[in-house]
Specification:
The protein is mainly alpha-helical and 249 residues long. It has one domain. Helices cover 76% and strands 0% of the residues. It has helices at 5-18, 21-41, 52-68, 70-82, 84-89, 95-123, 132-159, 163-167, 170-175, 191-198, 201-215, 221-248. Helix 3 packs across helix 11 (201-215) and helix 4 runs parallel beside helix 7 (132-159).
């Protein structure tokens, strides 16, 4: 069995480059949200920061990733329904390379989309005093978060019976940042909502990215953030392996 991850990755990336509307479509929604919240709601939201786009950007980046990984489910669903997945599994290649190609495609395409969103944020006034190590840490957290959600996306991509079912799981993920510290400080929320917001994955991830971008000093929230990402990724990877093996029988 040969590892053909690179060949399969090239196939998927060529499809994306031939039709870059996928990346553009994923970028449009977060950008529109960023414009809306900064220029319409920003003046009425008290965050303790001089520039609301600085406060908002980490959460917008997570929404961008959550939107982007839905296309991983869609691409897998299309491969399964078209019979291409069955054809791949009969070829002398490692079975894991089929899924890893989709995962790496998600990582690359999401990185391109994030770059577009950050560029727009810069035009809107986003500034950071983060050093090289801080930026590398931010990239690492975003990459780990992308991997975690992508492996989660593989599950409906393999099991969904319709295109809508393959992508529907992403809606709760996109909504989750709204009940976190992504848009407003959790201190302003009612007690029950605040308890949920402060103990769900997005808040610790957003707080860690925000601290790295502007303060250069992170607290224990970064370990909580990494723990959440790793836990989601390991769980999703384990479930995906079980589902994929069952489909190969």
């Amino acid at each position: 069995m040969k590892n053909r991850t690179g060949v399969l990755l090239g196939r998927l990336m060529r499809n994306i480059m031939r039709s870059p509307d996928t990346i553009i479509t994923v970028a449009v929604t977060p950008i529109m949200m960023m414009l809306l919240f900064v220029y319409v709601f920003g003046g009425a939201i008290e965050t303790g920061t001089a520039n609301y786009v600085n406060y908002l950007l980490p959460g917008i980046l997570l929404i961008t990733i959550a939107s982007g990984v839905a296309y991983t489910s869609l691409r897998l669903f299309n491969d399964v329904k078209s019979g291409l997945m069955t054809r791949f599994t009969t070829m002398p290649i490692k079975r894991s390379s089929i899924l890893w190609a989709h995962v790496w495609t998600s990582l690359i395409s999401n990185a391109l989309t994030i770059a577009i969103v950050i560029l727009v944020a810069l035009l809107m006034g986003f500034r950071s005093n983060a050093g090289v190590f801080d930026w590398l840490s931010v990239i690492g957290i975003l990459g780990l978060f992308t991997l975690a959600l992508t492996w989660l996306a593989v599950i409906p991509g393999l099991t969904a019976r319709s295109m809508e079912g393959a992508t529907a799981y992403s809606y709760p993920l996109i909504f989750l940042p709204f009940i976190s510290s992504a848009f407003v400080p959790t201190e302003t929320m009612p007690a029950i909502v605040r308890a949920f917001a402060e103990n769900q994955p997005v808040t610790s991830i957003v707080n860690s990215i925000r601290a790295l971008l502007y303060d250069g000093v992170v607290d224990s929230s970064i370990w909580i953030a990494l723990g959440w990402c790793l836990a989601i990724m390991v769980m999703a990877y384990f479930v995906t392996g079980k589902v994929f093996k069952r489909q190969l029988r």
